[in-house]
Amino acid sequence: GAAHAAAGIEVNQLGFLPSAQKLAVVPAGAGDRFQVADATTGKTVFTGTLGPAATWDASGERVRLADFSRLRAAGTYRIRVDGQPESPTFAIADDAYRALDAGVLHAYTLQRAGIALDARIAGPYARGAGHPDDKVLVHASAASATRPAGTVIASPKGWYDAGDYNKYIVNSGISTYTLLAAYEHFPAWFDKLALHLPESGNGMPDILNEVLWNLDWMATMQDPDDGGVYHKLTNKQFDGMVMPDHATAPRYVVQKTTAAALDFAAVMATASRVLAPFDAQAPGRSQRYLKAAELAWRWAQRHPAVTYRQPPDIATGKYDDEVLDDEFSWAASELYIATGKDEYRPRALAAAPAVQTAPGWNEVRPLGWISLAQQRSRLPHPADADGARRQILAAADALLARRQASPVRLALDTSDFVWGSNAVALNQAMMLVQAYRITNKTDYLDAAQSALDYTLGRNPLGMSYVTGFGARAPMHPHHRPSVADGIAAPVPGWLVGGPNPGQQDRKDCHVSYAANAPALSYLDDACSYASNEVAINWNAPLVYVAAALQSLTR
Ligand code: G3I
Ligand code: 9MR
Which of 53, 220, 230, 322 has the highest local Cβ count within 10 Å? Predict the structure, then answer.
């Protein structure tokens, strides 16, 4: 492929809250000074000196930093440096991330299985109902005495996982938890964030209405006879690039696994806590969630090492993970908070074997820390939260140290450029936000801001990695509705996976990646599931971090 076009001046293309740290990255070799100009009048409103030049190893680019944090006046701006094209326009505004947060949450609504979306809800992305999942077959790998292979069960609703139309409990776990945590930590922000859902106006905050669509599905994935939880609900093969209502292959629930049971238990215990104040709307719901969580935990106790084995006739996503200590730890943490029972305490309080800088679908221990740290006052022994707080601070301090050494002021390490790297950056930001909530130390919030800046344009490709947001955003995500709907613009509000030098999709792509360096290994083509797919677990930390910066920046 061709060499990638120089990104020029790299800046968060949405912008900043007035008192946020504001950094841009400028190619070295131009002038020493930078100006920030009013985008409407062209008048210079701020000038500064660029920092020293240095090379970022993840991209090979030689850069200097522009710091204009002291510019606080609301407005729209562009950055200028001699010898460079002007930066994209960005804003300084009190509600800089309001439309973004609403849009990124709305993507979940557009991603719902089993529902038709009319123009009132979906605008031009209105579509018919797909995948009712009211007649799902029990796959041989999941057969039990009471539900032999071929048994028909109902398992409707939920969100499609990603660019594909399957539904996976492991990935639903972290996604649903992160949205519940966003509401639990920043209720005032979400109480005012209107999303235009079918349920809007029913007395629930819209973010919780959206989460309930997936919780309702998750609940059906538990076998009531033994408490075990199916790993996924899926076709045998991935669907073609068609709209949901044109994808009609038979659906199966596949294998009960320990990871599915534990992630399910953690989410249901969390939901019982976060949704308890809304029980009047659905009497007994919280208790049902907690009962389901404990039933799943007990199944996992009886089956502590059942890892996912893809059956030979199934080819869809695996979400396989051989290490289950972290799943036990997370589930135990949430169940300990919910019940106060001693039986959950040892697993909940067990220290991690190493510093864990961010959660991910296969590394969920930090999710338990987040809950324990926040729920200190509910614990039978409040000091039980201290270990979690220490582990959060160890993670955040490791990230701060990396950021301090980084020429682009990012905690991202070269090894963080994996499948879904954009979400690695945002999950790190979520950890940094936890450290800020514990200590009130601004450095942590600044580091989280930088991670958001990275995903919104302060990166060597000069892209906002969120569809529909920013001056230069992905146009061709690996997302079946975006490919099949006949609309040029992709479904908005999706964070794409991002640069991934693994390039595991090379064999399926008719075009090649423009570059191989970790931070440049990205392809805005629908073929590129390894760098340009979307996924519910990648959007979730973006919802969280945007809400956090809106709520905490002062
Ligand atoms: O576990 C190994 C680790 O030991 C090794 O050091 C490392 C080196 O690269 O690789 C690790 O495995 C990676 C694994 O994720 C766990 O992190 C694989 O290389 C990597 O290919 C794998 O990527 C996953 C991908 O599915 C393929 O299985 C992504 O995390 C995951 O987000 C993605 O999820 C897919 C679903 O399967 C289907 N639906 C879409 C979704 C998003 O693309
Ligand atoms: O569309 C699939 C995507 O959701 C997955 O993340 C990816 C990796 O499991 O696989 C995609 O499906 C591709 C399959 O793996 C290989 N043939 C081409 C498919 C893309 O249409």
Answer: 230
Task: Tell whether ligand 2 has an atom less than 6 A from the beta carbon of residue 61.
Answer: no
Task: Pick the atom of ligand 1 nearest to 318's CA.
Answer: 37
Q: Is 465 part of any domain?
A: no
Domain tally, the chain: 2
Pocket test for ligand 1, best of 363, 419, 505, 538 (most atoms within 8 A of CB): 419
pLDDT tens-place string over residues 286-326: 999 999 999 999 999 999 999 999 999 999 999 999 999 99
Distance 300 CA to ligand 2 centre (A): 30
Q: Are residues 105 and 68 in the same domain?
A: no
Q: Is 164 in the pocket of ligand 1 (CB under 6 A)?
A: yes
Asked if residue 238 is part of any domain, the answer here is yes
Q: Where are the beta strands (DSSP E) in 146-260?
A: 152-153, 167-168, 230-234, 252-256
* 544: nearest Cα among 113, 270, 181, 52: 181
pLDDT digits (tens, 9 = 90+) for 1-43: 333 445 799 999 999 999 999 999 999 987 899 999 999 999 9
Q: Residue 193 is part of a domain; what is its CATH number?
A: 1.50.10.10
Q: Which residue range(s) make up the domain with 15?
A: 1-96
Among candidate residues 10, 101, 161, 164, the one labeled active-site is 164
> Is residue 221, in this structure, part of any structural domain at all?
yes
